Fold these 2 entries.
Entry 1:
Amino acid sequence: MSEFIVRLHGDKSITHRAFIFAALASGESIIRNVGSGEDLASTRQVLRQMGVSIEALSNDTWRVQGLGGIHNFHRSQETLDCGNSGTTMRLLAGLFSGLKHRVTLDGDASLRRRPMRRLARVLEPFGRTVDCAEHGSAPIQVGGDLSQKTDELSNHQNIRILTASGSAQLKSAALLAALSDHRPVQIIEDAQSRDHSERMLGALWSTSLIKSELTLEIPASKPSFTAFDFFSPGDLSSASFWVAVAVLADSKYSSIKLEEVNLNPSRMGLIKLAQQMGVQINIQHKAEVLGEPIGSILIEALDLNQSLKPIQPSAQEVLDALDELPLLALLACFADGRTEIRHAQELRVKESDRLEAMGQALASLGAQIETLTDGWVINGNPNLVFQATDELNSYGDHRIAMCLLIAQLKCIKGTKLKINDLECIAVSYPEFPQQLVAYSR
Ligand code: S3P
C-alpha cells in the first residue's frame, strides 16, 4: 500500500487575482505554478487587450509588466472577451468601472446566461453604472462615469457597500472599484465568501483590510504597490476532487498526498465536510504567500468496513464548499443515511444549473436523490453501485464533467459511462483525466 502524490496547479481564484494585481503594480511581476486552464487565459487576454504586457516564461510561469495603476490602462474599442469565466468578467468589471472611458465585456453562451445586474448594485454607491443586455446578462458596459460624477459625489464622506448573497466575485468587484475612488470604502457581507482579494491586496499594502469576519475597509488613500514574485498555491477546488477519488476508488494506493496546496479557511469547506463524514484528512500548514496559507493535505482511503456518515451542512458550510457541492452530492450517495444540502440556490446560476445537472445525472445512475429549489436530499447507500445509463450530460460545465468522471469509479466493472463534452474540463483542470487514469491503474 502506498501514497499517490499529486502536484496541483495554482488556485484559479488566487491566480486570476495575481494577474490583476500584477497588472496594477509598478514593475515586472512573475507568477509561478499557473494552471493551463482557459479561464485564466481569458483574464490574461482581456488584460492584454487593455495594454498589459504578459508573456509566458515556461508552461506555468508568466511575466507581467505592470502599468502602475488603472489610469495607465489603454483605451480599448474592442469587446473584451471573458470566455467562460465569470470571475474574469465580474472582477474586471469592478476594476474597469474606474476607467475614464467605457468598455464592453462579453463571454461565451454560458457566461451570457449568468446574472450581471447584481454588479450594478455593488458599483452604484461609487456612482458607476453597468449596462447589461436584455435579461441583465452580458455583454455589459462599464467605465466612463468618473469625470461626470466625481464632483457630484465628493461631498459624501465614505462609501458603504452591502454585497449580499455571499459572493466573492461581487465583493472583489467592489474592492477593485474602490481602488479608483478617493473615499474610504467599507464592504459588508451577509455571509463570509472567499477572501483572496483582500488578503492579496492587504499583503501588497502591508496592512490588513479585514476588520471583522464580514467587514472590509479600504482606506481613502490608496498606496501604489510594487511588483512581486509569486508562487500560486495549489488549487483547493481541484484538491477536493481527490478527496472523492480517495474515498470512492478501488485502488492499490492507501492515501493521496497533495503538496503545496492553498489552505485558506474560506475554501476548506469540502475538506471539513468530508472530515465530518468520517474521511481521515491530515493537514500540515507550512508557509504563507501574499497572505495565503500553504501546506499539504493527506487523504486516507476508507477502511474496508467503514462507511461515510450522512451530514446536514449549515448555510455557512455550504457557502464555504460552494464550488465543491456537486462533489458533496456524489459522496452523499454512498453515505449511510440521509444527507440534506440546502441554501445552495446560487448553484443554479453557475457555469450550468448545477443542482439540476447533478440531480439528473445521479438519479439516472441509480442514486436516491431529490432536487429541491435550493439543494438536494440524498438517501445514501454505502453498497450502491452505479448502473449503466444513456449518455450523461455535463452541460459543458467543467466541475460537473469531473464529478461524472469520478462517478465512473463506482460503476459495475466493465461499464463505461458516456459523458458528453468532457473537453470542457480544460476550463479549470485539463490534467485531471490523465491523473485519474494514473491513479486508477
Ligand atoms: C469565485 C467566486 C465564486 C465561485 C467562483 C470563483 C472567485 O463565485 O463560485 O468559481 O474567484 O471569486 P460567486 O462569487 O459568484 O459566488
Note: The longest helix spans residues 12-24.
Entry 2:
Amino acid sequence: MQILTTAAGLHAYTEQARQAGHRVGLVPTMGALHAGHLQLVQAARAECNEVIASIFVNPTQFNNAEDFRLYPRVPEADAALLAPAGCTALFVPSVAEMYSQTTVLRFDFGALERVMEGAHRPGHFSGVATVVSKLFHLACPHRAYFGQKDWQQVAIVKQLVADLSFDLEIVACPTIREADGLAMSSRNRRLDAPARAAAPLLYQVLQTAAAQVRRGVPPAQVQAIAEASIAQEPLFTVEYMAVADAQTLQPLTDYGAGRAVVLCLAAHLGGVRLIDNVVVEA
Ligand code: AMP
C-alpha cells in the first residue's frame, strides 16, 4: 500500500492508474477506522483494481471546535488495517495540504440540508462538499464509497455529483453494527463504560419506531414515542428524531404509498454525539 501525503502525489498516482486502464475506487474517511470503514474498502476492492482510502479529519465540516479537537486520530493503527483489507493507496494529507488557502466557496443544498444534520450542524455539509469535491478532483475515481450510516450525507454527495457533473458513481453501503446493535462509529471510542452500556438504546428505539411505521402509526406519534423512550435513559439527550421521506429527507405528516421512510436519530451520550438511522422500505 502506497502512502500519499500530497495532492500532487495523489493526482499523479491516479492519473497513472487510469492510464493503465485500472478502475479507481475512493473511500473517503476521517480515520479511527472500524469494520464499517473496512466494509467500504472491501466493496471497493470487489469492483475496482485501485482502491484509494483517504484519512483526513476535515476542519471545515466541524461546527464544534471541541469535537474537532477530541476526534480520535490513530494513523498508524489505521494504516495497519487498510493494507490487509485490500487498499492499494492511502492518502493522508495535512490540513495545510488540503487547505493551502482559506476557502471562500460555500455550498447550499437547499431543502436537503435544512433538516437533520444540516439543520443542527450549520455549515457541516458545506465543509463535507468542499472536501469531497477536492478529493474527487484529486483522485478522479470511477466510484466513491460511502456509508448509509450517514444517510443525509449520501443524499448530499449524490446531489453534489449530479449538480457539478462529476463523472463518477456513488456507491452506498449498509450500516455495520456492533453485536448489541450500536452502529459502529469512530466516536464510540470516546464513550465511557456507563455510556457504552446505554448506547444500544439508540438502535432499539429506531427498531421500535420502524415497527410502528410499518403498522401505520402516524409520524408525529412515532417521533414523540422515540424521543420519550430515549429521555428515559438519563445519560442521553435527544437532539432530533426525524420521520422523513427517504429520498427527499423532508419530514412526513403521513405515509404515501410507494414511499420509503427513513428514521434518523441524533443524541448526546456522555458528551459524545451519536447518530443512527433505519430505513423502512415502502
Ligand atoms: P467517517 O470516518 O466517520 O467520516 O466515515 C467515513 C465513511 O464511512 C462514511 O461514508 C461513513 O458513512 C462510513 N461509515 C462510518 N461508520 C459506518 C458504519 N458503521 N457502517 C457503514 N459505514 C460507515
Note: The pocket of adenosine monophosphate is lined by residues 29-30, 36-37, 39-40, 146-147, 149-150, 173, 175-176, 183-186 (CB under 6 Å).
